């Protein structure tokens, strides 16, 4: 028999299957035709389907309108059915010594496994839709398709005759007793009820009925709350937690309290057993406060907070659990203490502590996201409320202030941040204690609430300087971090036994630390960069340039605090910056170079070893900077130059002022370096190739070589008007122009330091004199002049150069100058004529093409201009004006007449 509780019906199988109404047992329907002689049936109460096994046939019926059965399907099976049960759309069949799955729609059969050698097949449906199949004394769990479920096996003490399910237990009828086992792995034995020769087990809502030969026993379940207490007291925590899920929904608070209490006890048990990670999972599932878990770790230092102790919460939960059961005294008496470690070796204690801390790290990391999120939301809420309050104050300036009623809640509202502080501080310590320094660094790089004082002391004690630096950085304690870095770098330079320490800290770390501070706090960067600027100047300057630290600020700071590094900074900045540096800094660098060169010059002059061809490294830098840059103040530099030295620097400055004649005079007469003069001319010519006035620079050099007097006169013409603007400057030098002659005047003019020249002026001298005056100004440099003419013949006006040469110059000496010059002139002339003719021919072709494009229309009225007859279809000709038409015959005759007349006129002549 089987009861359909939802339909108030009773199904019974005797000679056939009958349907009765409850509670009166009136017969509703009888399936006598197809079920007579049946030995087993299975009822699907949800869908109203009935499967009946008769001999080797399986028939499926559907209950229609609650009054009669309608046959749906009928299938043949290999042998007589012993047991069966519905499992979804399938039916599990027990046939002789094996189990099979048949699809109720298609009839497809699938073998599962054999049922054993002793007991007949036993199919028991589970509330979850799965099946428990008997195989001798073993119960195997399978899904609806007959596939084995992992860890699904119940081992009975004997072969069961039948099994009923009463969640969460399976009750089996054995020959000598009734055995109760858990449905959860490892399916432990729960209870044994000594009842011999039980004929049948029947499941009801409240109990299980055990029918004997002459009596019926009711197996009543112990209340779930009491079972939970008993299982917890005996250490069966998994079973206790499973039973908590069976508590009524209306007891949700009681259920949560019991589950939390069991998780805590289970966590303590696992922690004492050395299963630290599993213990942390239990503590996490109990939703216990992290301070409760951290109390198990005395090595972790916690910050002072006002968080309510978790012990009080646990007492509240225990009090709630006490109201639900009389056996709570047993649970309250259960208390696990940490094992004494006196009898353990130091190695075991160390290993246990490390594993426990590793488990703590994972626990705190799992809890961290939620706690940090709440703390951040709390901060955001306070910022928003503060902004709103500030805006209200601004909008109502005359409203009297009222006392803040929420001030008393400030302590309560900071619980989330206090919890985050406890968590991050503990997590940092646990990471360091387990050797995870990189993890601690990553923690500090992100948003964190680590307690500064505790973490600082902890890291200093363990020399975790890298993590300590990140702690300072996260709290914007940059001065402390940089002081520590400087100290560590200094210590790493000294001879120490720990070579790894030496490799870990270097000046490059200071540069990398300063990089993000360049824009937020440039003054702090400058104050802290002196150390690395002395040891790694190039990297430090590159830092200033890449992060756009104001150059004027850097220069002024170095000028005040580290003047010896100022030139180094400006040099590197000039070499690294693609766009160069501003004129003020260029002038500053040149002035620094010049000051050092002047000091060096004074020392050599006092020693009597000064010559113009001595170059110190600084003088080379000065000359190179003067040549490659132009942002400095030439007037100030000329005033500082001595009159009797540093002529090369003076020549460069004159060149920057476009006083080319003076610069060339210095190269030729003072420095006696004609090759430098030629190079100077080349540079000026190439820079000003598009300016005709500068193309005479070579002629200026020729004047200096061949006509010093002429050059001197041009000096006077250019200098005296400029010097007149400064009447008080060096009058003695101006007076010498009138009374003295030849090369001394040039030298004195060149030594006039205080005379200023207009940068826009040029020395575009042009000689129109004869070669007779070439020797009036002193000895000429004919060889140098001839060499210049032979090397630069294509850049010099040949006629002017020949006019400037002395008359006694041999033509043979001018071959190297005149030959390429004349060849080049002839070639230019030929090229010009060729180009002229080509252009003329191109114009003729264009004209011919245009004339051939002309169109002439001949019609019936077209007349010949010679014979005045119609042209009609005759050959014709047209005159160049494009309008006059004639017969071709008339045109030819007229040409012959002209030819005859021309010949006659020639004979007459």
Report the structural category: alpha+beta
- Approximate strand percentage: 5-15%
Contiguous uncertain segments of 5+ residues: 308-343, 394-413, 718-777
Strand arrangement in the largest pleated sheet: 1-2-3-4
Largest sheet: 4 strands, antiparallel
Strand tally: 25
Mean pLDDT metric: 76
N-to-C terminal Cα separation, in Å?
161 Å
Number of helices: 37
Please compute the radius of gyration using only Cα atoms.
57 Å
Helix content: 40-55%
Shape: elongated
InterPro entries: CHCR (IPR055358), Clathrin_H-chain/VPS_repeat (IPR000547), CNH_dom (IPR001180), Vam6/VPS39/TRAP1 (IPR032914), VPS39/TGF_beta_rcpt-assoc_1 (IPR019452), VPS39/TGFA1_Znf (IPR019453)
Organism: Urochloa decumbens
Region (Disordered): 755-776
Domain CNH: 1-208
Q: Can you describe this structure?
A:
The chain has 37 helices and 25 strands. α4 (252-272) packs across α7 (310-322), α15 (478-493) runs antiparallel to α17 and α21 crosses α23 (566-576). The chain is α+β, with helices and mostly antiparallel strands and 909 residues long. Strands 1-2-3-4 form a 4-stranded antiparallel β-sheet. Helix content is 50%, strand content 14%. CHCR repeats lie at residues 528-710. Keywords: Cytoplasm, Protein transport, Transport. Residues 1-208 form the CNH domain.
What tags apply to this protein structure?
4-stranded antiparallel β-sheet, alpha+beta, 909 residues, 25 strands, 50% helix, elongated
Summarize the structure in short.
The chain is an alpha+beta fold. The strands form seven sheets. It has a four-stranded antiparallel sheet. A four-stranded antiparallel sheet has the order 5-6-7-8, with no helix packed on it. Strands 9-10-11-12 form a four-stranded antiparallel sheet, with no helix packed on it.
């Amino acid at each position: 028999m089987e009861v359909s509780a939802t339909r108030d019906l009773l199904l019974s199988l005797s000679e056939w299957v009958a349907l009765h109404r409850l509670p009166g047992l009136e017969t509703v329907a009888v399936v006598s035709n197809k079920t007579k002689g049946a030995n087993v049936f299975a009822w699907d109460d949800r869908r109203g389907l009935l499967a009946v096994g008769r001999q080797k046939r399986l028939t499926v019926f559907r209950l229609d309108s609650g009054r009669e059965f309608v046959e749906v399907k009928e299938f043949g099976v290999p042998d007589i059915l012993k047991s069966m049960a519905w499992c979804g759309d399938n039916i599990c069949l027990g046939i002789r010594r094996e189990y099979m799955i048949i699809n109720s729609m298609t009839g497809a059969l699938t073998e599962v496994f054999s049922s054993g050698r002793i007991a007949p097949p036993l199919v028991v449906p589970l509330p979850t839709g799965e099946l428990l199949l008997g195989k001798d004394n073993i119960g195997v769990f399978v899904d609806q398709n007959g596939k084995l479920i992992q860890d699904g096996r119940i081992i009975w003490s004997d072969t069961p005759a039948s099994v009923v399910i009463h969640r969460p237990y399976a009750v089996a009828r054995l020959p000598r007793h009734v055995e109760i086992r858990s449905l959860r792995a490892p399916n432990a034995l729960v209870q044994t009820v000594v009842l011999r020769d039980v004929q049948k087990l029947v499941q009801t809502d409240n109990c299980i009925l055990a029918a004997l030969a002459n009596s019926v026993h009711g197996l009543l379940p112990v209340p779930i709350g009491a079972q939970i207490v008993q299982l917890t007291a005996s250490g069966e925590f998994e079973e206790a937690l499973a039973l908590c899920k069976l508590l009524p929904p209306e007891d949700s608070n009681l259920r949560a309290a019991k589950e939390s209490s069991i998780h805590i006890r289970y966590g303590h048990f696992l922690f004492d057993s050395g299963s630290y990670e599993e213990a942390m999972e239990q503590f996490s599932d109990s939703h216990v406060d992290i301070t409760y878990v951290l109390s198990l770790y005395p090595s972790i230092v916690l910050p002072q907070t006002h968080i309510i102790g978790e012990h009080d919460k646990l007492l509240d939960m225990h009090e709630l659990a006490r109201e639900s059961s009389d056996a709570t005294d047993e649970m309250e008496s259960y208390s696990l203490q940490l094992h004494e470690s006196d009898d353990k070796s130091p190695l075991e204690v160390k290993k246990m502590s490390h594993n426990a801390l590793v488990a703590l790290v994972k626990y705190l990391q799992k809890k961290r996201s939620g706690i940090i999120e709440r703390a951040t939301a709390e901060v955001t809420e306070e910022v928003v409320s503060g902004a709103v309050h500030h805006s209200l104050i601004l909008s109502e300036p005359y409203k009297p202030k009222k006392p803040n009623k929420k001030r008393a809640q400030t302590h309560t509202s900071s619980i989330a941040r206090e919890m985050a502080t406890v968590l991050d501080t503990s997590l940092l310590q646990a990471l360091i204690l387990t050797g995870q320094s990189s993890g601690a660094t990553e923690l500090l790089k992100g948003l964190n609430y680590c307690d500064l004082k505790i973490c600082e002391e902890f890291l200093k004690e363990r020399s975790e300087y890298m993590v300590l630096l990140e702690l300072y950085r996260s709290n914007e304690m940059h001065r402390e971090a940089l002081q520590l870095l400087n100290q560590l770098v200094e210590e790493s330079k000294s001879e120490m036994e720990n070579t790894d320490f030496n490799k870990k800290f270097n000046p490059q770390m200071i540069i990398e630390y300063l990089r993000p501070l360049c824009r937020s706090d440039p003054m702090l960067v400058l104050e802290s960069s002196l150390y690395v600027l002395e040891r790694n100047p190039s990297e430090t300057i590159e830092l200033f340039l890449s992060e756009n630290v104001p150059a004027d600020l850097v220069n002024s700071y170095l000028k005040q605090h580290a003047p010896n590094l100022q030139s180094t900074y400006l040099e590197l900045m000039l070499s690294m910056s693609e766009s160069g540096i501003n004129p003020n800094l260029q002038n500053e660098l040149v002035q620094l170079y010049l000051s050092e060169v002047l000091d060096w010059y004074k020392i050599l002059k006092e020693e009597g070893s000064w010559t113009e061809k001595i170059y110190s490294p600084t003088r080379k830098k000065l000359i190179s900077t003067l040549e490659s840059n132009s942002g400095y103040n030439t007037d100030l530099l000329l005033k500082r130059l001595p009159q009797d030295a540093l002529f090369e620097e003076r020549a460069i400055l004159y060149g920057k002022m476009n006083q080319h004649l003076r610069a060339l005079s210095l190269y030729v007469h003072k420095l006696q370096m004609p090759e430098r003069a030629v190079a100077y001319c080349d540079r000026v010519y190439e820079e000003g190739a598009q300016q005709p006035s500068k193309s005479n620079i070579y002629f200026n050099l020729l004047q200096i070589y061949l006509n010093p007097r002429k050059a001197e006169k041009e000096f006077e013409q250019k200098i005296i008007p400029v010097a007149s603007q400064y009447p008080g400057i060096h009058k003695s030098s101006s007076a010498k122009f009138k009374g003295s002659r030849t090369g001394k005047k040039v030298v004195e003019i060149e030594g006039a330091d205080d005379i200023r020249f207009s940068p826009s002026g040029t020395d575009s001298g042009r000689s129109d004199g004869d070669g007779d005056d070439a020797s009036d100004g002193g000895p000429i440099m004919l060889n140098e002049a001839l060499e210049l003419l032979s090397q630069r013949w294509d850049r010099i006006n040949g006629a002017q150069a020949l006019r400037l040469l002395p008359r006694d110059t041999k033509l043979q000496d001018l071959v190297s100058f005149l030959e390429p010059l004349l060849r080049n002139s002839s070639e230019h002339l030929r090229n010009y004529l060729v180009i002229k003719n080509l252009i003329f021919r191109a114009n003729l072709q264009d004209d011919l093409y245009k004339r051939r494009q002309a169109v002439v229309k001949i019609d019936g009225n077209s007349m010949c201009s010679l014979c005045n007859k119609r042209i009609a279809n005759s050959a014709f000709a047209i005159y160049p004006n494009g309008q006059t038409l004639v017969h071709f015959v008339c045109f030819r005759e007229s040409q012959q007449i002209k030819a005859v007349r021309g010949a006659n006129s020639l004979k007459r002549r």
